[in-house]
Write a structure and sequence with these properties.
The protein is mainly alpha-helical. It has helices at about 5-20, 30-40, 45-55, 75-100, 100-115, 120-140, 145-165, 175-185, 190-215, and strands spanning about 30, 60, 65-70. It has a three-stranded antiparallel beta sheet.
């Protein structure tokens, strides 16, 4: 969805970040005016931003209970992972066929940035990992895939942040990203698709295990 008003865009970005990073936890009741005051913004752009976030399935608007931050659950994880496991390998394969020199420069820079991040800095590693996946989607040169996956990335990030304290596999993504960059550089679409599938699947398996364990305690 295209955002044209600058204040609405700013409100959208700031509220979305708060939701994704769990500063606004799932289920939190949202008061428009209080939120506008906290952000030092007008009520109108905040109201419009919340409507857009409802479209993104990050905010729920009800007649009875008003506005609240959407819940997250294991069924959400399963459905999102099904789509990403189909579309992200497709993007990796297309990137191997279509990536430009600029795309490869961005991917290599992000890979190096991730490799230079301290192994215990999970929040930073997660942020760079997210940017790396976005870069591969852009390198696929399909605007519809970009729109679909950007929406899914927003939903997925909240699940990642829920599991973040127990994630111990983020440093291994550095080696996997190196293999992905190499396969895209060599235009090996089949290898790029397989590496991406295994990479995403392994990550979801780990998050699934953590969230399952949390629900049992």
């Amino acid at each position: 969805m295209e955002l044209v008003d600058v204040d609405t865009q700013q409100a959208y970005d700031r509220i979305r970040e708060s939701i994704i990073t769990l500063e606004l936890a799932p289920g939190t009741i949202v008061n428009e005016q209080r939120l506008a005051d906290d952000l030092h913004m007008g009520a109108v752009p905040v109201r419009e931003a919340l409507k857009l976030l409802a479209h993104d399935e990050l905010i729920v608007i009800t007649a009875r209970h008003g506005l609240y931050v959407a819940d997250v659950s294991l069924p959400d994880l399963e459905q999102i992972s099904e789509v990403r496991l189909t579309l992200e390998p497709l993007c990796a394969g297309l990137a191997a066929q279509r990536a430009t020199a600029d795309d490869l420069t961005v991917l290599e820079a992000l890979r190096r940035q991730q490799a230079a991040t301290a192994p215990g800095d999970n929040r930073r590693l997660l942020d760079v990992d997210h940017k790396f996946h976005q870069a591969i989607v852009r390198a696929a040169k399909n605007k519809y895939l970009i729109r679909i996956l950007e929406h899914l990335f927003g939903l997925t990030q909240r699940l990642w942040y829920l599991a973040l304290p127990q994630l111990d596999m983020l440093p291994t993504a550095v080696a996997e990203h190196l293999k992905l960059v190499e396969s895209i550089k060599s235009k090996d679409a089949d290898r790029a698709r397989k590496i991406m599938y295994d990479h995403v699947n392994e990550f979801y398996d780990r998050v699934r295990h953590i969230l399952n364990s949390s629900e049992k305690t």
